[in-house]
Amino acid sequence: MALEKIISVSGKPGLYKIISQTSYGLIAESLEDGKRLPVYSHYRISSLGDISMYTYGDDAPLAEILWSIHEKHGKKELDLKLNDAQVREWFETVLPDFDKERVYTSDIKKLMKWYNLMLKNDLIEKPQSEEEAAAAEEAPAEEGKPAAKAKKSTKKAEATTEGEEKEKPKAAKKTTTKKAADDKSKSSAASKSKSSAASSKAKGGGKINTPRKAS
């Protein structure tokens, strides 16, 4: 887990793991006993990912110091019963160039407690190098390639659907033509019938009854 998810809360002992965010702040879980507590926005919190220690050169990120301790001691917890002189002497084997004036013994003892808690919860991880971080950023881009292929397949499917839709009007056109032919045939038959009726009427109309002369 990234150290950004591990926090210390002012006035609260130990370390906490961020579980979720809320409208009022955070929900955090203690690494010591697993109990959860609300962390309100006005609380003073520190993310372990933002913490570093003074050296005579560049400041040393906490993640690198934790990993140096892990390489030295493995899965063995640190002895918290050392006196002040022993604590500083031990820390010099972990971070030889730490600033002896600005790094207090209380800071080192707190670091030792944090290390034991994180070791207990299996949270000690090797920090990523710049090359590894860059490779991790490029990985999602590689994963996106199949999505592009799927997009092409979708376009092909759309083109097929459009082709099918274009063929449907042809069938409708044939039906319309047939219907028009039937209507034309019916109309022709109706016209023929009317013509016959008109012809018959015309013939019948030619017969005029001549009045008989009175005898």
SSE arrangement:
Blueprint: E1 6-9, E2 16-21, E3 25-30, E4 36-40, E5 45-47, E6 52-53, E7 60-61, H1 62-73, H2 84-94, H3 105-120, H4 130-143, H5 145-205
Antiparallel strand pairs: 1-2, 1-5, 2-3, 3-4, 6-7
Explain the overall architecture.
The protein has 215 residues and is an alpha+beta fold. It has 5 helices and 7 strands; from the N terminus they run E-E-E-E-E-E-E-H-H-H-H-H. The strands form 2 sheets. A 5-stranded antiparallel sheet has the order 4-3-2-1-5, with no helix packed on it. A two-stranded antiparallel ribbon has the order 6-7. A hairpin with a 3-residue loop joins strand 2 and strand 3. About 21% of the residues have low confidence.
Strand order of the largest sheet: 4-3-2-1-5
Q: In CATH terms, what is the fold-level topology of the domain at 51-126?
A: Arc Repressor Mutant, subunit A
CATH architecture annotation of the domain at 51-126:
Orthogonal Bundle
Total number of beta strands: 7
Helix percent band: 40-55%
- Unreliable segments of 5+ consecutive residues: 147-162, 171-177, 190-211
- The shape is globular
